[in-house]
Amino acid sequence: MQTQTDRRFNGFMFPRAVGGLLALAVAGWLCGFGVPADAAPAEAGSTSTAQAVPGFWDPRRRPDRPDLSRLTVIRFMTETDYPPFNFTGPDGNPAGFNVDLARLICDEIKVPCTIQMRRFDTLLDALAGNRGDAVIASLGVTPELRKRADFSDLYYRTPARFAARRDAASHEVRPETLDGKKVGVIAGSSHEAYLKAMFTGAELHPYPSDEALRQALKQGEVELIFGDAISLAFWINGSDSDNCCAFSGGPFIESRYFGEGVGIAVKKGNDVLRQALNWALFRIWEKGLYSDLWLRYFPVNPF
């Protein structure tokens, strides 16, 4: 179960204490220090990957171009401190994956946009109060949130993955391969619930925090850990890991445990904007712009 500090619905959390450092790291990647897109595919135990960028759009379900004449401006709202998705850039302006995606949407629709930053817990109330038109802030879509807002098509998901010591990482992880293995996980999380249901032979070791969980793997207290793949990707490729560890096996994306995915929220009944967003997202993906954006922000493949 997620705590209030997660500030997410079926998403993941970077602690505020490291948010500023992560924002600086993202800024460094955007200045050209990221993994090149044409890097060779990684073997198990490697941190450098040529990414297979995730896609969430079916080319056989090409949306028709909606009537965009009624759209004169889009007032996007996002949050203030959730790198690499949302953060304040060196120039003091909104920055991050969500912000750049919003700008691509506006370019595609060819309407002016504004992007205002608010506290995460105020965003949906601001949307309902007509203080903005769309929320692009890594909102994980849930049945409860669908009662408060309508959503665009999904534009990313937060998979779960195993990580192991680099010399023990493997390409495939199945329930039978983890029988008797010591596996660390955050206590009370959806990841723990998934392991209890699907990896019944594993010896689970719950930990109270991400820091404690990752230290357990570094120090050999457990053989693998299981958690959010995007935050694990940043840890694996960051200095805190001391190059100890790597992903083991592929992603797990079961929506019952890890959420439907992330969409853009609009006010209930605003189908004109919702359909325009869906059309623009498809076009951005079709042109390869989504892939370019993903590779800029995620040099280590979480999928």
Characteristic key phrases:
disordered N terminus; 303 residues; alpha/beta; single chain; D-Maltodextrin-Binding Protein, domain 2; 2 domains; five-stranded mixed sheet
What does this structure look like?
This protein folds into 2 domains: 4-41 and 51-157 and 260-297, 3-Layer(aba) Sandwich (D-Maltodextrin-Binding Protein, domain 2); 160-258, Periplasmic binding protein-like II (D-Maltodextrin-Binding Protein, domain 2). The strands form 3 sheets. It has a 5-stranded mixed β-sheet. It has a 5-stranded mixed β-sheet with strand order 9-8-10-7-11, with helices on both faces. The protein is α/β, with parallel strands linked by helices and 303 residues long. Residues 1-50 have low confidence and may be disordered. The longest helix has 18 residues, at 16-33. It has helices at residues 16-33, 97-109, 123-128, 143-146, 190-198, 210-218, 229-236, 255-258, 271-286, 289-297; strands at residues 74-79, 87-88, 94-95, 113-118, 134-140, 150-151, 160-165, 182-186, 203-207, 224-228, 245-252, 262-266. It has 10 helices and 12 strands.
What can be said about this structure in brief?
This protein is α/β, with parallel strands linked by helices. It has two domains: 4-41 and 51-157 and 260-297, Periplasmic binding protein-like II (D-Maltodextrin-Binding Protein, domain 2), CATH 3.40.190; 160-258, Periplasmic binding protein-like II (D-Maltodextrin-Binding Protein, domain 2, 3-Layer(aba) Sandwich).
Q: Quick one: CATH class of the largest domain?
A: Alpha Beta
Order of helix and strand elements from N to C terminus: HEEEHEHEHEEEHEHEHEHEHH
Number of helices: 10
CATH topology of the largest domain: D-Maltodextrin-Binding Protein, domain 2
Strand segment tally:
12
